[in-house]
Amino acid sequence: MTRISLALAAGLTIGLTGAAAAAGPSGQLLYYNHAYGVLDTETADAIEHSDYLREFANFEVRTSTGAGGQTWTGRYLLGRETYLELFGAGELPGQDSELGAGGMGISAERDGDLDTAVERLHEQGVTEPVEFLQTRDFGDGVPVPWFDAVLTTDQYDRFGAWGMEYRSEYFADPRGNTEPANYPGDVGRERYLNDGYREHLMRDVTGVHLAVTQRDLDNTVPLLRAGGFAVLPVPGGVVAKGGGTTLRFDAVPLAGIGLRQVEFSLNHPVGYRHTEPIGHSELVVGPGARAVWTFTP
Questions:
Q1: 179, 56 Cβ separation under 8 angstroms
Q2: What is the per-residue pLDDT for 61?
Q3: Are 138 and 43 in contact (CB under 8 A)?
Q4: For residue 194, what pLDDT is reported?
């Protein structure tokens, strides 16, 4: 899901619905769902045709159709609860197609928690959050409600984060290939993603390191805090921790933005260290139950 598709949806569709629900004991309302990055063409092509990635992860190349007929084709590494979405430069509309652009979704696990996060946004000083419904078209021309979403602003440089909550209508549609609810009000990530990860090494995304402009970082921090992440200042940026995922943001000039590194947990420890060059990036798997994918700026 890209920022441009969300921005279009915000102008085409309606606001959120659903009753508010209490947060969990930790106060966490929104959890890392996925991030996307726009890479150089050589690296994006190498990812798309990598035999190793198809062994390492539940990997697929998929075209989705959102609100207003907006389409995007991404390269996906799908885990148990989380995933990573990658594009090549020029593959998205407008400024979102430029090298280094990116975005991130953080999502609710319980029905109504996004409403509570929106209330917290007001406490963070976001007086006019952008709320809307995103839809998905499975190819029959009939949009299905996909998820409710909120942005802190529709003005950004190249990176944007959004809060989201999957809709019951989407879970009820068999074409979504989702799982039954694990508890009342379950709208969670594990239910949304299938269990294909079990056949591969990659289990989940546990860390993401991004370089963004100061404006985009300033727009992102209130959403992270409203979602329950602990946001801590570090030299050059911030680190946000919550729900088992660590997010690092460096504030840089526009020319220096981009996806820097992604960390994964594995389904089981490995007793070796494997280094896989993929275009202008390097995926290091093991030893242990961890992998790190580093992208060259």
A1: no
A2: 92
A3: no
A4: 95
Q: Give CA–CA dist 228/25, Å, rounded.
A: 11
The pTM for the full model equals: 0.91
3-state secondary structure 75-120: EEEECCCCEEEEEECCCCCHHHHCCCCEEEEEEECECCHHHHHHHH
26-41 confidence digits (pLDDT tens): 489 999 999 999 999 9
List, in sequence order, the alpha helices (H) in the chain.
3-12, 41-48, 51-56, 113-123, 168-172, 189-192, 214-227
Question: Strand, helix or coil at 158?
Answer: coil
150 in helix, strand or coil? strand
Low-confidence ranges of the chain (pLDDT < 50): 12-26
Q: Are 249 and 241 in contact (CB under 8 A)?
A: no
β 274-277/281-285 pair status = antiparallel
Task: Kindly write down the DSSP assignment for every residue of 207-226, as one continuous string.
Answer: EEEEEE-HHHHHHHHHHHHH
Rg (CA), the chain: 18
Measured distance CA(152)–CA(150) in Å, rounded: 7
